[in-house]
Amino acid sequence: MEKAQAISDLEFIRKTMRASTRYTNIPPLGYLLSGLFGLAGPVYSWLYLGAEKVADPARIEFYDVFTLGVAWLTILLAAAFASAVFSVLRAKGLGKSAWNSLVARMLGSQTPQLFAAGILTIGMVAHKQYSLIPGVWLISYGLVLFSLYFFTGKDHLIQSAVFLALGAASLFSQAGVSLILLAAGFGATNLFFGVRGLLKEKEVYETGPAQ
User: What is the CA radius of gyration of the chain?
Assistant: First the structure.
């Protein structure tokens, strides 16, 4: 009986710990896929443009901008979709609804930043200020993460600081370095927090009752 009770208590603790992280962060697999997409974007941009255009954005033509715009929009939608799918699956596993007033407020808080990032991107393209785009994207996403911090936890605050720092550095860097910083933000940072999340979940599942 004592063993059965211990197992029951352990399962309750595990479910409680998982539930407590429901809105702390995107599920780890969502981070990992977003990180892979985030790495694919800068790599594709570098390969598509070539070393000369990367080093001298003035050489970039309109059709280059259009092609890269479609590629990055696809990456954004794919990353958002992956994060949404894994969030829904996590909510289902916890027996909770994936959509409620908290989620609505979280998404609503991000809308102005995303709108501003889109308008700024269009403006930079119109004035051929392509080298500034990575920095603006990084800073804009850093602001999105900061707004999420008020609903979630310190992980988003840390991520926000990383993206804001990378964005600031990108604005004062050469074009090629900006792409590397873009990969460090949307790629490496997301991958890091994905792996970190998986390790934390593994720790929760492997934690046994106190002896």
Answer: 20
